[in-house]
Design a protein that fits this description.
Length: 85
């Protein structure tokens, strides 16, 4: 779990790189790009979720609830993210 704003912020690439190393230690170095969501638990915590497959129902929830997202390119060290509109 992380504070809201962490995964899409400046430090998001490194936070998510560490998260991948913990969640998937054998393949973390082999993943070049990934999309993550911050699923709100309460006003102070979000659960980091790796968004593996596009799903229209989940996409709708993400947009309606304005969940945080992070589209990360680990190889380049770049991130595109924020809160869904």
């Amino acid at each position: 779990m992380v504070a809201p704003g962490v995964i899409s912020g400046r430090a998001g690439v490194e936070v998510l790189r560490r998260w991948m190393q913990l969640a998937m230690p054998l393949s973390a170095g082999r993943i070049d790009k990934a999309v993550f969501l911050g699923v709100p638990i309460d006003s102070r915590r979000s659960l980091v979720a790796w968004y593996l497959n596009a799903n229209p129902a989940l996409d709708e929830t993400v947009h309606q609830e304005h969940w945080e997202f992070a589209d990360v390119d680990f190889e380049r060290g770049t991130i595109r993210g924020g809160y869904a509109q």
